[in-house]
């Protein structure tokens, strides 16, 4: 597969989406093909039926292949689910020689130290995200590379998840005949698709309301500060409508999409919708006011739980204020009047996030729906991974071609020796890349 092509596979609770994207000459992403299927083997973001999940993945992939007229081999997959949790942790290392400048190796050593944290049984660290660094007690350093210092310290945002759940996803992908190229945390993927750099700098909370889970990612000063996965989503709203109105799930889902509103005051008492009865039974009449009361109660619960997480991050402190407010995305963000309700509960500016930030201008309206935010984000992530690999390969070629000059140090004057050449910043391999490799190894050896 060419390097400017990538495939995102979003394994959700209600739907599985395979999306093929390519970078055009303007650096924007063109979506070549998209396939979606009903997700049958996933509950609250976690695979609970391998066979059904494999069938759903294959169906989505075949649809995307047919639309794009090409074969899919490698995919970037998102992970979410109720098993994901995050914590704050600070750690430090003491450097042997404070006369030399801090380099990548020092930071890797510090990050690897965080990986030695003792977790609950079955849990593993998925992501270690440095927040800010301290060098010899000097705080608020964004990038310590190139500085002198003996003690390097950092605050980390650590994301933890159940390793068995991640392996199960890997298993489903591999058994579908695909190659697992990368793993990404879904809230991060959605954030890349719908947030602008300015919002990430100013401070913003991204709320991705899916079918089984609601993901939260908080950014400030361009850095991710907090992530959380809340085990409720659009499905519990459908479930409540089903119970409250005594109708079947399919009808409840349609009612929610067509007539649902998060704000009960909107509907008049005399607005009624009639639902056909089962097998010759009398049709049921449901008032829209009742419908939105049921939806409102559940949505308030979800939003309040998310708001608790935003408060846990410290939004109420002056220094941590989220100036850009809240961005809602995911299928659940399409619920009418949700934006107004979220603003009412949290008092924060809110907008609906459409994943058109990096897409080519002529993209289909369907693709720019909040429903596909995660899939678009996964495609972006795959493209970024390819770009990084290409840069690394180029560097290797350059290194091989560079002739070695013996005793070059003697030729340079002392002054020239002291000033290191400014090197291009090489992106550090994220822990997710390492995790992907570990999951791949595990699957290869488990066969």
Provide a descriptive summary of the structure in words.
With 447 residues, the protein is an alpha+beta fold. It has a domain at 234-298: 2-Layer Sandwich (Nucleotidyltransferase, domain 5). The chain contains 13 helices and 18 strands. It has helices at 50-68, 104-114, 163-175, 186-194, 197-202, 234-245, 249-259, 288-313, 338-346, 373-401, 408-411, 414-418, 431-446; strands spanning 5-11, 15-23, 29-38, 42-43, 46-47, 74-79, 85-94, 123-135, 138-141, 151-162, 179-185, 204-209, 214-220, 223-230, 272-275, 284-287, 326-329, 350-352. The longest helix is centred in the last third of the chain and has 29 residues, at 373-401.
Task: Produce the secondary structure layout.
Elements lengths: L4 E7 L3 E9 L5 E10 L3 E2 L2 E2 L2 H19 L5 E6 L5 E10 L9 H11 L8 E13 L2 E4 L9 E12 H13 L3 E7 H9 L2 H6 L1 E6 L4 E7 L2 E8 L3 H12 L3 H11 L12 E4 L8 E4 H26 L12 E4 L8 H9 L3 E3 L20 H29 L6 H4 L2 H5 L12 H16 L1
